[in-house]
Design a protein that fits this description.
This protein is an all-alpha fold.
Length: about 140
């Protein structure tokens, strides 16, 4: 029976949370069961979500958590865009087969291969025409 399994799993999670939740925590996560099929427990879940947000706001942590989330998102986008630029760089793509072959055949250690590809990438254009010169002037 699905309800029995859900109640058993919830009991196991409660036990784990009792062990893992630090003393003095501002929020003790509840363990709830709900059903997306029947809608049972969804109102309770939503009320707990709102209560959690309210608790964080009262403690001044919501804005801080949101700011940290924005910062992580920014760096994630930077990394994604750098990876995309690296993978689509004509200079890197031209040297990639040679470097990969050298790694596969044991002539080039992976660390040196990565260094070579990054140096090739760094030698290429670093943005819109004229941007590199303007950046180097400052």
């Amino acid at each position: 029976d699905g309800q029995l399994r859900a109640r058993k799993a919830a009991a196991e999670y409660r036990t784990a949370l009792n062990i893992m939740t630090p003393a003095g925590a501002i929020w003790r996560p509840p363990v709830l069961t709900c059903s997306g099929l029947t809608g049972d427990g969804l109102d309770t879940l939503w009320n707990h979500i709102l209560e959690h947000r309210s608790t964080l706001e009262r403690q001044g942590l919501f804005a801080e958590k949101r700011a940290q989330q924005q910062l992580r998102w920014m760096w994630s986008m930077v990394k994604d865009r750098l990876t995309q630029r690296l993978e689509t760089s004509p200079r890197v793509r031209a040297e990639q087969p040679r470097v990969e072959k050298d790694v596969l055949e044991g002539r080039l250690p992976p660390v040196e291969a990565a260094t070579q590809l990054l140096e090739i990438f760094d030698e290429g254009p670093s943005g819109p025409p004229g941007l590199r010169g303007r950046l180097e002037e400052h």
